[in-house]
Every structure is written in C-alpha cells, then in structure tokens.
Amino acid sequence: MGLGKIYRNYLKNNLFMRLLLLFSLITVITIISFSYFMYHSMSQAALNRELDTQKKAMANVTNYLGDKYEAAQSILFGLYRDSSLSAGVSFMLQHPFQEYVQHGLEQYNLGGNSTWKDGLQYFKNRLEDDGDIRNLMLYSVDQQVLYVLSQDRQLRIASANAAHSYIPEAMALDNKSVSLPNVWLREAANQWDNHLYSIRSPINDKQTLKNIGQQVVYFSSDGIWKVLSADKKDLKGTILVLTPDGGVLFDSSDHFYGKPYPYMDQVNSLYENSDYKNGDYVTKLTQNKGDFIVVGIMPKEELGASSRRIGSTIFMISAICIFFAILLPSLVMMNVAKRTNLIIRFTRKVKQGDLTARIPDIREDELGQISRSFNDMIDELNQYIDRVYKADIKQKHTELSALQARVNPHFLYNTLEVIRMRAISQGAHDVGEMIYSLSALFRSFVQQKKIYTLKDELEACRLYLELFQIRYKDKFTYSIEWDRKLAHIRVLKLSLQPIIENYIVHGLRNDFTDNELQIRVKQVENFLHVQVKDNGKGIAADRLIVMEQSLHAEETEEGSFGLRSINQRLKLLYGSKYGIKLHSEPGVGTTVDVWLPMDDGRGVYDV
Questions:
Q1: Does the predicted model carry a pTM greater than 0.70?
Q2: Fewer Cβ atoms within 10 Å of its own Cβ: the N or the C terminal residue of the chain?
Q3: Where does the sequence pass through the membrane (predicted)?
Q4: Spatial distance between the Cα atoms of 245 and 177, rounded to a whole number of angstroms
Q5: Among 300, 321, 337, which residue terminates a domain?
Q6: How confident is the model at residue 78 (pLDDT cuts 50, 70, 90)?
C-alpha cells in the first residue's frame, strides 16, 4: 500500500486523524529533542560529578602525603628541640654502637644526665605513634652503619661499608623528596613490600651543623586508602601517586606496583588540569613539597557505563511520555470524532426530511452547545413550518369562505353588470352605484395578486364602506387617514375588512344619524399600527372578556372568519408580538388596534 493510498484512505477527508498525526509528530520530535538535550546535559553533569569526586580524592591524597612528609620532618624537629637528646643521637652516629652503649652506662653510673641515651627509644616511640610507618632507619656517615627499626621495635644494625655495599653512594645523593625505597636499603632492612614509599631527611650535628647521617622512613602506601574510604563508593577510575621519574608510590588499581609507569611521558605533557587522552580523562596534581605527582585516570569505559545508565533511564521515561502523549490525545480525538460524526449523521437525517431527529448530547462543551443549538434550530424550524402552513390554510379558507368559491366569478360579474345597467335605465342611480361597488369588491377578493399591499387592503375596505354609505345615506360616514409612503407595505389579505364588517353587522346604530368609522394607519417603530375606531353600540364588559379569550382559542373549519381569524393568522405567520387588541365601552364605541410587521415588501410568504 503506497503512501498516496494511505493518505487518500485515512488522512485526506479525516481532519481529526490529520490533527492527531500532526500533534503526535510534534510531540515525538519535541520529546526526542528534549531527551537528547537532557541526556547530553545529565551525561556532562555525571562526568563533572565523577571528575570532581576524583579530584577531591586526589586532593585528599596530596594532603595526606604532605602530612606524612611533614611527619617525617617533625621527627628531626623534635630531636633538635631537645639538646640532650640531640647530643645522644649525635654520639651514637659518630661512634661505634658498643662505645655508645658503654658511654651510656658510664654516664648512668656517674649519676649524670642520661636523657641523651634515649635516642633509640625516641625513634622507637615515634615509630609506634604512626601506624603507617613500616621502618625507620638511621644511617651514620662516619661509621657507615645503618640502624633499622621495624614495627616490632627490634633494632637491626647493618654494615654499609663502601667496599661491600652501595648504600653510602645512595645516601650521598641529595634527595629530600618522597620516593621509592632504594633497593640496597630494602636488602639491608629485609623489606620487600612493594606498597611502600620512602621519605629521607639529613641529620646534622646541632653544635657543628655537620652532616652526620640520614633519616629514612618507610611508609605503607596502603595508608592512603584511609583518606579514600569516604569517597570509595562513588570513586571511579584510578588514582596514582608517581615520582618524577615514573616510580609508582601508590596505585588504586594495584596494576603498576613494582615497575615504572609506562605512560609517564604523557603524564609529563599534561598541565595541572583535566585533559582527554586516548579516550580517557586524565587529571594531574603536582606537590612541590614532596616532589611527587598525583594522577587521576577516568577510563572511557567507566564513563560510558554512567552515560549508558543515564541514556537507558531517559529512553524509558521518553518512551512512556511518548506513549501517553499519543494515547491520551488519541482517546480525546476519538471521542470528539465520534460526537462530530453523530452531529453529521443527524444533519443528514434532517437533510433527508426527518425533522424529528434530535442529537442526544447533553454535555456543556462546544460540541454539546452545537448539538443543543441544532436541536433548537429544528424545533424553531418545525414551529415556523407549522405556523406558515396553518396561516396559509387559514388564509385560503378565509378567501374561499368570504367569496363562496362555489359561485362562478365571471357569471357573478356579468349578472351584477346586467342588474346595474337595468337599475340605471330605470333611474335608480344609487342602486347602480351599490352594484358597481359590490362588483369591484368581489373582483378584488377573487383576484390573485403575487404581492398584496396595504394599499390593496385599504381599497377593499373603501369599496366595502362605500356600499354601506349608500345604504345608510345621511346616517353613516367614514374616513381613512394614512401615509401614502406606506402603500407598498405587504399585508395579509382580509386583515382589515372583517373588522369593518364586524362594525357594520354588530356596531352600527340604525336609529342614529351620526354613525362614524375612522381608520388610521401609521408606523410605530418597527410596527405598522392600524386603528379602527367607531362610535357604535360598544361591547359590554363581560362580553368583551369572552371575546378577548376567544381571540386565542383554536378556530374550527366551520367557525367565523372575523377577529379571531385575523388574530390567529397574524400570530401564526409573524409571531406573538403581532395581532389585534380590543378596547370598547358600551354606548361610546369600540376601538380595534391591529399590529402588523413593517415587512416593506421583502416577506418570504405568499398567502
């Protein structure tokens, strides 16, 4: 299935599917982009955190070794502060050990100050005070003898004659730094542990300042782990303590003890900062006091493991976010699409003529409001159709009943014309005028005009009134007052004539000579107001109430087509605002107010 076919079948005519696809695409791109930046940021943060942890551990190692260097120097400082002790140690290093012991006994027997003889005891005590010291050695330049103290407080005296040993040559080198133990010293002390580093300091005679020997202290490298224990859980990579020539004083990975560090050239090329070498991050710290180098190495494999863990976590979270970011809008879209399709289905029902269709959606959101508006529209449409239909039927029924449609109009016109001519020939001119007015009136009723205006309705009223003015000569007068500008306004046929007929039949007083009927037409805002006022008999109050109630009662086919017919037709066609109002007082007269719309000839009906 090609992309074009997929588009035509699922996307072209499906707005919600296109919106969902667009939203999903934007969401996926946004989440992936955000995840990438999060991964990059968190990986860098993890790298910086691990490097900071390593730098902190390296700083602790540097401080620890500096403290050990100071501790080795403080042994001699303590010696120099005590003159008697310094004198005793000087005697021991400048004379054979037997003379030193003999001299000490003599001084004791003489009761002299024997503090000087505690020189060895002083060094033993300092060895015991520091648990990291494995050996403390004193070398005599004059005697070429090496005194070795071990952790078990045992003293070992090794000959260092230049003819049989390289110890004098090693001691002659000027070395005050932290270094690897010399192999000849190891052999003399019988100390072959690789996890050691050496700190050597010269011993001078306090009186003459002459160099009389060397102090050599062997510290265990394993003591460095004590300062790393706090960060051991989070510490990654390898920490090395190296001498300038590549000797390994400490190795946290335990790979390079006992052999030169193979990458010393690369270490020497680094500044005291982090750098990226061969995929590994390398950090270098140099301590001038002890002349040693602390190197931290963070392999790319360990960094990659952290990045992979972060990537896996971010991938899982992103996948879950994408899933829910697509699922939830999909459910919402499906619900909206379902409700929209329901609206479309019901609109098609109405299009096919089913005006009873109603959308069953009671929710208060936009689609619910559209559904209720649609239902209200159908209700109003039904009411409008019903109103216009009934108005049309009533209008036709009024016309047919008023004209008695069973009479042939042409036969009636011809017959009336014959009678009129006969009356004129006999001298009955008033009868001829009446017949002419009646004929014209019938003609206006029967004639079907496409547009029936106020002018047409008032002309019908005038013809009807002319008949009865001839009939009641000198007893009845009428007047019609209206603005000729309103002549074009469309009105219902027979909307005024039945009111005048009502007056002639029920309100005219035959025994009075001042009967008068007034018709006034004017515009009041958006209404056309027609007032028909007479000075006839009037209507009793109880009868007036009955008539007002009957105006709103349902009219039957056999009923009259008077006031009630006019009122109902106006309300059916135009609405409840329109219709007629009655005002009457017995003996004074009756006023009928008719309220019509200012249609101005633009109506949508033709009845």
A1: no
A2: N
A3: 20-39, 314-337
A4: 12
A5: 300
A6: confident
Taking residues 265-281, what's their average pLDDT? 71
Based on the fold, state whether residues 266 and 135 are members of the same structural domain: yes
Q: What is the pLDDT of residue 13?
A: 63
Same domain for 213 and 73: yes
Residue at 253 is within a domain = yes
- Quote the CA–CA distance of 171 and 215 in Å, as a whole number: 10
3-state helix, strand, coil in the chain (%, to 5): 55, 20, 30
Do both 57 and 152 map to the same domain? yes
Cα–Cα distance, 378 to 350 (Å, whole number): 8
Q: Which of 276, 300, 324 finishes a domain?
A: 300
Specify the higher pLDDT residue, 226 or 427.
Answer: 226
Residue with tokens 């309220």: 595
Question: Does residue 416 belong to any structural domain of this protein?
Answer: no
State how beta strands 133-140 and 145-150 pair.
antiparallel
In angstroms, the CA 256 to CA 235 distance is 19
Count of all residues that appear for the chain in the document: 607
Same domain, 134 and 261: yes
Report the C-alpha gap between 231 and 221 in whole angstroms.
Answer: 17
Q: Is position 497 within any domain?
A: yes
On whether both 168 and 271 belong to a single domain, the answer is yes
| Cβ neighbours for 402, distance < 8 A, ≥ 6 positions apart | 445, 494, 561
Q: Which of 543, 536, 532 is nearest to 580 (CA)?
A: 532
Amino acid found at 393 = I
pLDDT level of residue 143 (50, 70, 90 thresholds): confident
Q: What is the residue whose two structure tokens read 């004129």?
A: 424
Q: What is the pLDDT of residue 287?
A: 76
Distance set, CA 124 to CA 154, 190, 314 (Å): 9, 18, 60
Beta-bridge partners for 215: 138, 201
Instruction: Determine the 3-state secondary structure of 274 from DSSP.
Output: strand
The whole-angstrom separation of Cα 340 and Cα 342 is 5
The answer to whether position 17 is within a domain reads no
Contact 403, 446 (CB under 8 A): yes
User: 261 and 137 in one domain?
Assistant: yes
* CATH, residue 564: 3.30.565.10
